[in-house]
Specification:
Layout (H helix, E strand, L loop, with lengths): L1 E4 L6 E4 L2 E4 L2 E4 L4 H6 L8 E8 L3 E7 L6 E7 L1 E8 L10 E7 L5 E4 L3 E7 L3 E8 L8 E3 L23 H4 L12
Antiparallel strand pairs: 1-2, 2-10, 3-4, 5-12, 6-11, 6-13, 7-10, 7-12, 8-9, 8-11
């Protein structure tokens, strides 16, 4: 596995070794010793999967308590995955990072606690999988506005296309007003 640092502190892009032949492929998506050697010592307690239609935007989500680190990947289709650093103590506080994750490129992204996270489905549909370090806590979930002007996230939406948003995601909070981490 290759672990690459990104421009946001503690966020890692992971490229697993894929073994393929005429029958298909095999890849290792989690191995505690290899991740620990790269500085990721997560203990996972919940696995999730979502399927979304093209141009669905989910996020930018985080939890103020029961904060979650996430190891994310795509098993079908493709997404543009975005993280925003909400940790005041971080050298990259307020910075964002985006990357394509797809079934074809097999990339994974480690999203540590204290970051908002979201995806935009860029294929006809996408199956998105994520391992979490804490349980989902609806009472503590918050949504940072996906289109926050202060961040300037460059979502790869075609001209004239608006994302498909849940009611919650359509009412995201501004960066100025959203709760942040120490």
């Amino acid at each position: 596995m290759k672990f690459q640092k990104t421009r946001v502190q503690d966020v890692m892009l992971i490229e697993p070794q894929v073994f393929g032949d005429a029958r298909g492929f095999f890849m290792e998506t989690w191995q505690a010793e290899k991740f620990a050697a790269a500085g990721i010592t997560a203990s996972f307690v919940q696995d999730n999967q979502s399927r979304s239609a093209q141009w669905t935007l989910r996020g930018l989500h985080f939890q103020t308590e029961h904060t979650q680190g996430k190891l994310v990947r795509v098993s079908a289709g493709s997404v543009y995955d975005v993280v925003v650093d909400l940790r005041r103590s971080s050298s990259t506080f307020g910075a964002w990072f985006g990357v394509e994750l797809s079934a074809e490129n097999h990339r994974m992204l480690w999203v540590p606690q204290g970051l908002a996270h979201g995806i935009l489905v860029t294929s006809e549909s996408a199956d998105f999988l994520y391992k979490c370090t804490d349980l989902y806590s609806p009472a503590h979930e918050r949504t940072l506005a996906w289109d926050e002007p202060a961040l300037g996230i460059k979502w790869p939406l075609p001209a004239g296309v608006s994302p498909k948003l849940s009611a919650k995601d359509a009412k995201g909070t501004s960066l100025e007003k959203i709760e942040k981490f120490a």
